[in-house]
Automatic annotation (TrEMBL):
SMART domains attached to this UniProt entry: HDc
Domain HD/PDEase: 26-135
Protein name: HD domain-containing protein
Pfam families documented for this protein: HD_4
Domain of life: Bacteria
GO molecular function: guanosine-3',5'-bis(diphosphate) 3'-diphosphatase activity
Length: 185
């Protein structure tokens, strides 16, 4: 493991542990999610910068860590990817539908590296949400289909795996294509 990746892993672990962040539904230490995302990005040939950003992808969104601190600690490339991956909207920015539409539009313009990390994030989150919260999963799957429709620049194999994970979730919940919010692909 490179020095950059070791630092990113330790930094993310400490940031999430500082607030005792746990995975929703399972209560396991939150760092298992960034670890899974980073492993997926690495498995699909991601650069050290991408893998570092995968480790750090939720620290700005979920902890007191700022983009300025990430830029200082990890450089502009890593911080820029984390910025693309961070949804910093609040309920004051509009209802959920408005915020998610804005997020989809923003991510459609993200660089391929950020989109690749987002695919891995979506894959890991989808399985957990479908398994543990079928009611919310119906909303989540529809939103993520919309996001993926505009995010086609990342790693093609991970993109297909992200689509497949949504389809598997829809099948598990027995959603028709219309209920899932898309025509069959």
């Amino acid at each position: 493991m490179s020095e950059l990746l070791l630092r990113a892993r330790c930094f993310a672990t400490a940031a999430h542990a500082a607030i005792d962040q746990r995975r929703k539904y399972t209560g396991v230490s939150y760092i298992e999610h960034p670890a899974a995302v980073a492993a997926m990005v690495a498995e699909h040939g991601g650069s050290d910068v991408m893998i570092a950003a995968a480790w750090l992808h939720d620290v700005v969104e979920d902890t007191a860590i700022t983009l300025a601190l990430l830029r200082q600690e990890f450089g502009t490339e890593v911080a820029a990817l984390v910025e693309w991956l961070s949804d910093l909207q609040t309920p004051e920015d509009g209802n959920r539908a408005v915020r998610k539409a804005r997020e989809a539009k923003r991510l459609s313009g993200a660089p391929a590296e950020a989109q690749t990390i987002k695919y891995a994030d979506l894959i890991h989150n989808t399985a957990s949400i479908v398994r543990h919260d079928p009611g919310f999963a119906r909303v989540y799957l529809r939103e993520k289909r919309h996001v993926l429709a505009g995010m086609t620049s990342g790693h093609p194999v991970l993109y297909q795996k992200a689509l497949d994970s949504l389809q598997a979730g829809e099948q598990q919940l027995s959603l028709t294509p219309r209920q899932a919010g898309t025509a069959s692909q």
